[in-house]
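Prompt: I keep going back and forth on a fold encoding question. Comparing notes only helps if you start from a blank page. Show me how you would write down a chain together with its backbone fold. Please set it down just below, with no commentary around it:
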Amino acid sequence: MPDMTASAAEVAPVTADATQTVLAQHWQTHSLNLSPIGNCMVSALIDSNGTWVWGCVPRFDSDPAFCNLVSGVGTSDPQALGLWAIDVLDLAHVRQSYGRNSAVLHTWLTDTHGAEVEVIDFCPRFKRNDRLYSPVSFCRIVRPVKGAARIRIRLRPACNYGESEAQTTSGSNHIRYYCSEAILRLSTNCAVSHVLEEREFRLEEELAFFLGPDESFSVDIRTGVRDMYEKTDLHWREWVRGLALPMEYQEAVIRAAIGLKLCVYEETGAIVAAMTTSIPEAPGSQRNWDYRYCWIRDAYYVVEALTRLGAMQTLENYLKYLRNIVDRAVNGKMQPVYGIGYESILTESIAEHLKGYRGMGPVRVGNLAYVQHQHDVYGQIILSSVQAFFDHRLLRPGTVADFEQLEKIGEKAFEVFDQPDAGLWEFRTFAKVHTYSAVMCWAACDRLENAALILGLTDRAEVWKARAATIKSTIDSRALFVRDGAEDNLYSSAFDVDEVDASLLQMIDLRYISKDDPRFLSTLNAVEKMLRRGPHMLRYALPDDFGEPETAFNFCTFWLIEALHYAGRTDEARELFEGMLNQRTPSGLLSEDTSFHDGTLWGNFPQTYSLVGIINCAVLLSRPWKDIR
């Protein structure tokens, strides 16, 4: 039987201060100091006291059985729903961290008398019978470490986006919770009545909880959950061992990589932009969006970052997802976002029974971005796919048939590159010919030329080379201008206007211009002048559908860091990067936005864009391994 007596010393801290003792408090208002667990089928977010405050079943985009995070009701409120709390009476302090290189979370709660309880949270994920076992299930282990604390268990799944508490039935060692989209069965060696009545009791033995499908637990619950813990922890450590890490910033990269992996829905290969919905981008802004879907743009950046680390399975699975949605496209027309099960309709509505994060509603379900025209997606589909024609590591190399399917996407890119769209920032009330979208369409044609050449299709390579040249000529004639005081021409964020946005900093990464091009330096100077706020970056500064932006967009700050490095300002880039690492939660993660006034995190969490930025900048700025070998 595995030894479950892990101490704080044996479990690696997430960040330098992650295991420091902190005064415990049951938050009346929530924060984004959250730690995710998951297994690429289901996930949950756990607050700094070990309380589950977010989790959807049976999929990332399902009704959140654990919806407390956006309920507007604090976890200690008697009426709180959508949570799973292990309350230690007379709580004095808490420390929390992940296992070393693992997605298994440990929380230690100590009462005023010195008694200590450890809670271990994870979702099972390991090889069983030569197959990956990752069920729609959650596990908790609650064990006395020192003394015998008095605890209370509050397990209150909600239904219909917070409308009501799930109804229950129970047996001698299980409880069924009738949620909106699934029946969850809790199997445990804890007295069932303790859970049902939320009774206070003395913790004198280790308790195991398995919350999953409505099926009997086939082995002794304590032995079975212990075994799952050991195998899941080992699985994550082995996955991390296979990553090609930079020499510096390894802890940050590992945490970001695991965070990205937890946003993958492995059943289809989809990648969600974040686990949550409706965390506002700024206080009271109503910029509250549902990010539990697969944006082609976000997923492109995720697979690019993980592929840089050698995590090839995510790319392979995502390519399967892309092939399926491309097959469904009519005349090559692609949406910017799809459901994780290939759904094309993501009707947007308001969850009336949820008051929102810190009471800042609305809570939105679905996302109207699916009806928008965002022409950059054609480039991102092809950029994600083209590696399959060159990379010998892939189990399924790209074929001529795959290329012919991608040509339909390229045809659409060439058709729309100079047409107005909503752009990557998804403006809802106006459209322009956005330079980033046009550059992505250029990249689509440019990369199709590369793929055609490797396949020996020289005639098709000439076609795509000519089309790329046509797009480039148009961009350089309509998106370049001279601003007063600038030494050289610089690029605008849209055709025929004098504006800039942060996406222009991506032109080097996309190989549209070189880092030595004077137009890049002029563009960088203009972007900094207009959008930089101290150590942070705005996406754009002009008013949009909701007024002027109020917070910095974390991914754009990472784009600035990359651009500064390319411009020869590496010391400054390092300083900004290390400042961003200090902005992370104790779990080593970031949300979408940061207040440039007080550093508070805002926006959905964990945000894949932001985690990609951590990885890309670490790889770019790290000293090489040869420096120490």
Notes: The longest strand covers residues 138-146. The CA atoms of residues 174 and 254 lie 37 Å apart.
